[in-house]
Write a structure and sequence with these properties.
Layout lengths: L18 H12 L3 H11 L3 H5 L2 H12 L4 H11 L1 H14 L6 H13 L4 H6 L9 H8 L8 H4 L2 H4 L3 H15 L1 H4 L3 H13 L9 H20 L9 H6 L5 H5 L4 H4 L2 H25 L7 H20 L8 H18 L2 H19 L23 H13 L3 H8 L7 H4 L6 H8 L10 H10 L3 H19 L6 H21 L1 H13 L29 H15 L1 H5 L3 H23 L22 H14 L6 H12 L3 H17 L6 H22 L6 H13 L2
Helix pairs in contact: 1-4, 2-7, 4-5, 12-15, 14-15, 15-19, 19-20, 20-22, 22-23, 24-26, 27-28, 27-29, 28-29, 28-30, 29-30, 30-33, 33-34, 33-35, 33-37, 34-36, 34-37, 35-36, 37-38
């Protein structure tokens, strides 16, 4: 059978008489948690009578604490159970501003420091809201009047668990608590208090309680934006802070009305002040945003906001009263001031995003040929930031493929090279070195050369001109090219042919004839009218002009460069020029009729594949052209034509070769006039245009074509 005193265990049946011993006796009997017991004894052992009054009261409180699971919860049970005394202590602080000396308050401070130092809101929600009427007053009492402006306040885990809208509502409610004295005023007096704040020049702080309250409220908004901007960017939007559902900002803006202020001047002044405050907040948000782990989209939003802020600042400049150079100085000063408040990471991300965005736009397939880097890069052309910009720009440039690098370097440099020659490898030098790369694609050589001819690298480009034209000829023979690719080829040809005409006109002429030979589009219509053909119907052959026109242009250039010939017209000089031009044409036609190197006729014939010109149509055309020109070139023409007459595999070619042979021999000893030579050039080209259409399988209206020939021959 069990002992009847077993349920009492080691409990002393007699009540201790000594107050301290009696307190410890109650703790031993009713306090089950060792750590809470130590904390409880530490603060109430020597003053329990004035705090709790009677041992029964202690027993009651300890029984309640035993139902809580953790020490913080036990502490909250004790504090809430003592709310009457704590409320008295709070009221004393609220009225006098002094914190009382009390064991219960000291215990509260210990609990706050030990368990709720990082989350005052948890302590407040845990029971302190029954003591302090609002969270702002509670913080001032227990954490200090400036705690609500600190990072710790905004990092409270309990508040951070709220979603964006609820957290915004919480902060605006907090603003309302801070600014209560101001918000309780009517509109007229609120506007008056704001005007008072605006008017303070030697600022030492608002003097009225109402002005002080809104001053603290606005200070809180700035702290809110500063620390909120350091959170992940998807957790808030600055616009929602100012114009969200619970915002008081629009209430403040509504004070800027003539009906409230009584003066349009004061209204404008108040509007400007509020607008400046909002942009100060925007700036505060921007300079405190952490971009270390920000995504590309987040950085883009940040850059757009910071450039929008600068636009607002620049907009405040008066153009009527200041000169352009003063405006430039104004922009530079404000830009440098803003950058001075940004971190190295922020400036680097700003530069990097700007460069990447510019590259993306420049490299878009639909971008036109007039590409140019954005003017935004020029703002980094300062002593402070140029080296950083240069480093990031080169990193981004070298990450591109060769084609993309060429597109970027074909633009003008986004800075004044004269100012930064010593600190940055010259733009043109870097462009010039690009073609020397081992992996530089062959098909890009014409593009590089065309650009180099225009950007100051002419000497480096000249050795590549001849090769570039040959590459483009091969490109244009490809029937799968799209319109933009064809246009690009012909755009390059225009500058390349112009360059080679100055280096070696004979090569320029030869290239034009080869381009005509292998063109996949005709140069003339069915009437053999060149001007109504492909040249002016979207095929971009603006580099090509009729051979007679080309000869005339070259002759005029020659006259311009020769002072003596400019003074007087020399018919012999002109005749000599046109004779040489016609002979150059004959030389080209002649080379096209010969056999390829190492080839010989077999059994009194050769195969078309052995000839340089493998098309029998074009061989006929070249023979007709030679016959029209009539120059024998010291016997070279009649010997080659005679060989063609005997051994060409095509009967039509042999027949025309026979006619050509007779014509050349007949004209060999003649000295044609300049006008006759011009006519022969027109006639020779007419045959080439006909061959081109026949070779492409296109219709020729021979009667109309003959009229065309006769019209051209009248006025060569």
């Amino acid at each position: 059978m069990c002992r009847i005193d077993a349920p009492f265990g080691n409990i002393t049946f007699n009540e201790k008489q000594d107050p301290t011993e009696r307190f410890l006796q109650v703790c031993d009997e009713y306090c089950t948690d060792v750590y809470f017991r130590e904390l409880f004894i530490k603060y109430f052992q020597n003053n329990w009578q004035c705090t709790f009054g009677h041992p029964d009261r202690i027993e009651e409180i300890l029984k309640k604490t035993n139902q809580a699971n953790s020490i913080p919860e036990k502490c909250l049970v004790l504090l809430v159970d003592s709310k009457i005394k704590l409320s008295f202590l709070f009221d004393h602080y609220d009225q006098s501003g002094r914190k009382p000396s009390s064991p219960l308050f000291d215990f509260l401070v210990e609990v706050k420091n030990t368990y709720f130092s990082s989350s005052p809101f948890t302590l407040y929600q845990g029971g302190m809201k029954k003591i302090a009427p609002n969270y702002f007053q509670f913080l001032c009492w227990l954490y200090g009047e400036d705690y609500c402006y600190s990072k710790a306040f905004f990092d409270d885990p309990a508040i951070n668990e709220l979603n964006g809208q609820k957290r915004s509502q919480f902060y605006w409610d907090f603003f309302e608590s801070i600014s209560r004295k101001f918000l309780m005023l009517n509109e007229y007096h609120r506007a008056k208090e704001l005007r008072y704040i605006i008017s303070l020049t030697d600022y030492i702080g608002p003097q009225t309680k109402e002005a002080q309250s809104i001053f603290c409220g606005l200070k809180f908004i700035k702290a809110w934006i500063k620390f909120e901007s350091q959170r992940p960017k998807n957790s808030y939007r600055l616009y929602d802070i100012f114009y969200g559902y619970h915002s008081h900002w629009e209430d403040l803006q509504n004070l800027a009305r003539d009906a409230v202020t009584g003066s349009s001047d004061i209204t404008e002044q108040l509007k400007q002040w509020l607008d400046d405050f909002r942009y100060d907040c925007i700036k505060l948000s921007l300079i405190n945003t952490d971009l270390t782990k920000a995504s590309k989209d987040e950085i883009e939003v940040w850059v757009q906001e910071i450039e929008g802020y600068l636009d607002h600042v620049y907009f405040g400049f008066s153009f009527d009263k200041n000169k352009h150079d003063e405006y430039e100085s104004f922009m530079k000063t404000n830009f440098n001031e803003l950058c001075g408040e940004l971190s190295h990471v922020q400036i680097s991300k700003w530069i990097e995003w700007s460069i990447q965005d510019d590259f993306t736009k420049l490299l878009e397939p639909k971008n036109n040929l007039c590409k140019q880097l954005s003017a935004c890069h020029s703002k980094w052309s300062t002593t402070e930031y140029f080296e950083l910009w240069k480093t990031i720009f080169l990193e981004q440039l070298e990450a591109l493929d060769i084609k993309s690098q060429l597109s970027i370097l074909s633009c003008r440099p986004p800075y004044n090279e004269g100012d930064y020659f010593d600190s940055f490898q010259r733009w043109i030098e870097r462009f010039s070195l690009l073609i020397q790369a081992d992996n530089f694609p062959k098909q890009l050589i014409p593009t590089w050369t065309s650009i180099a001819l225009d950007n100051g690298s002419r000497e480096q480009a000249l050795p590549y001109v001849d090769k570039s034209i040959g590459i483009l000829r091969g490109e244009l023979s490809n029937t799968t090219l799209i319109s933009d690719e064809v246009k690009s080829c012909h755009t390059h040809l225009k500058s390349l042919l112009c360059a080679i005409d100055k280096i070696n006109p004979q090569k320029g002429l030869r290239h034009r004839l080869m381009l005509q030979r292998f063109s996949t589009a005709p140069y003339s219509d069915e009437k053999l009218l060149m001007y109504s053909g492909a040249l002016y119907k979207g095929h971009f052959y603006d580099w090509y002009s009729p051979l007679n026109n080309l000869a005339r242009e070259w002759f005029c250039d020659l006259q311009r460069n020769d002072t003596e010939k400019r003074q007087m017209f020399d018919e012999n000089f002109e005749n000599k020029f046109y004779t040489e031009f016609a002979c150059d044409l004959s030389e080209f036609f002649l080379t096209r009729l010969r056999l390829r190197k190492g080839e010989k006729a077999n059994d009194d014939k050769y195969d078309s594949s052995q000839a340089i010109e493998q098309s029998s149509i074009w061989r006929q055309g070249y023979l007709k052209a030679l016959a029209e020109l009539g120059f024998d070139l010291k016997g070279k023409v009649h010997r080659t034509v005679n060989f063609t007459k005997k051994y060409d595999p095509d009967e039509s070619v042999r027949s025309i070769a026979s006619e050509c042979y007779k014509a050349v021999r007949r004209h060999a000893k003649k000295s044609p006039s300049t006008q006759e030579i011009k006519r022969s050039i027109v006639a020779a080209e007419w045959w080439l245009l006909m061959c081109q259409r026949h070779d492409l399988g296109l219709e020729v209206k021979h009667e109309e074509a003959l009229k065309t020939r006769r019209n051209l021959m009248r006025h060569p």
